[in-house]
Each structure stands twice: as C-alpha cells, then as structure tokens.
C-alpha cells in the first residue's frame, strides 16, 4: 500500500464524520458540502461519493432534508440538517475520534522518546 491508498482509506472512514460536523453548524446543500470539503484536500470528495453518502445518512435517519427556494431564479436546493439521532451518532464518533487521536499522539510520543 502506498500513501495515496492509505489517504483513501482515511477519507472513507471519516467522510460521515466530516459531513455531520459541517451540518451540525447549519444546514448545507450538497454542492456546498462538496465545496467546503474541497478546502481540505485530505477529505475532498466528488459528487459520486458525497450524494450516495448523503442518501445513506438520510436512510439511517442521521440527517433530514428539506427543499428551499434559491435566489436569482435558480432551482430550489435540497438542504441537509442533522437529526437528534445524528447528534447522538456524532457525539459517539467525536468521542472515538478523540480516543484515536490521543492513542496516536501517545504512540508517536513514545517513538520520539524511545
């Protein structure tokens, strides 16, 4: 496995987390999520990854969706917001993420001190 493969594995394991973190702040529409994630290349993803993920999160009831009219005569946009179930899932993910980072930091610290 090379670094690009490893980065791909990291991305697959964290996109749900990143999307839920975003829409916890405020409702986002799909393309807006894609654009926001593009600011962080390690988690940037294309439409063919994000939209199926959003459909799965909807099906699992971690997020909900609503249509909102756009400005300037554009078609309505489908916005996504986090549900109570999604908040509980996100809180559990955050705890596990913090545990992971802590373990990695300790391991890296041991390498530097060993």
From TrEMBL:
Q: What is this protein called?
A: PadR family transcriptional regulator PadR
- Tell me, what's a Pfam family for it? PadR
Q: Which residues form the Transcription regulator PadR N-terminal domain?
A: 19-91
Superkingdom of the source?
Bacteria
Q: Which InterPro entries match?
A: Metal_resp_DNA-bind_regulator, Tscrpt_reg_PadR_N, WH-like_DNA-bd_sf, WH_DNA-bd_sf
For this protein, the record's Gene3D superfamilies field holds:
Winged helix-like DNA-binding domain superfamily/Winged helix DNA-binding domain (1.10.10.10)
PANTHER family noted in UniProt:
PADR-FAMILY TRANSCRIPTIONAL REGULATOR, TRANSCRIPTIONAL REGULATOR RV3488
Q: Quick one: signal sequence residues?
A: none
